[in-house]
Amino acid sequence: LGRGGVSIAKFWVALLVAVTCVVVVREQVRKSGAVRWCRAIRVGVPMFIHLLMLLFEAGLSTRQALQSLIREARGVLPVLNDEMQLVLRQIEAGGDTAQVLKQLGAALDVGELETVLSILRQADRYGGELREPLAEALTVMEERRVFEMREAVNRLSGRMTVVMVLCFLPALLIFVAGPPFVSIFRVLGATQ
């Protein structure tokens, strides 16, 4: 390295910069993957609630409903299915259902899923009807999503207004005000 014109200090600095860049890029890729994973879970929660309500109406217990979801809903809920397989394995290994569901909710940190899991924990611990609480949670989620969509549409319309003013208004002014200005300049040029 010394003979080639590159000092050892420059080599170590370049190596340190390269390693730092690799670590930063790797962390960003992991974070974006986690955000996509959580978004996929959040999108699947309403379908998960519908399927749970259907299975509970058929008379299945929480464990049986999770087993049925894992067997039958792989194509419908691929991301949640993977998570529920882990939950079911822990339950079958002797874990407390409420504790396992609580750990899943804390690990994933998706608000809608935590709500559903807390309803399942309460039903497992205290018993009771699950259809009404799940239906209420689903209604709240759908209202929240409608509100979020309206907010996104409002932001988008504001952005489109700015784009329209910046791009369309100058062309409109040239088209509307251009001919009068050209004729005024011709008249003024003809009088001189």
Characterise this structure.
The chain contains six helices and no strands. It has helices spanning 8-57, 62-72, 78-92, 97-108, 111-126, 131-191. The protein starts with 7 loop residues before the first helix and ends with a helix. Helix 1 (8-57) packs across helix 6 (131-191) and helix 3 (78-92) packs antiparallel against helix 4 (97-108). The longest helix is centred in the C-terminal third of the chain and has 61 residues, at 131-191. With 192 residues, the chain is mostly helical.
Q: Give the tally of β-strands.
A: 0
Shape: flat
Report the order of strands and helices: HHHHHH
Low-confidence spans: pLDDT under 50, at least 5 residues?
Answer: none
Class from secondary-structure proportions:
mainly alpha
Approximate helicity band:
over 70%
Strand share of the residues?
under 5%
What is the count of helical runs?
6
* Cα-based radius of gyration, to the nearest Å: 30 Å
Mean pLDDT: 86
- Terminal Cα separation, in Å? 77 Å
Mind summarizing the main beta sheet?
Answer: none
Assembly context of the chains = single chain
For the structure shown, list the relevant keywords.
single chain; 192 residues; mainly alpha; 6 helices; 0% strand
Summarize the structure.
The protein is mainly α. Helix content is 86%, strand content 0%.
Give the arrangement of secondary structure elements.
Layout: H1 8-57, H2 62-72, H3 78-92, H4 97-108, H5 111-126, H6 131-191
Helix pairs in contact: 1-2, 1-5, 1-6, 2-3, 3-4, 4-5, 5-6
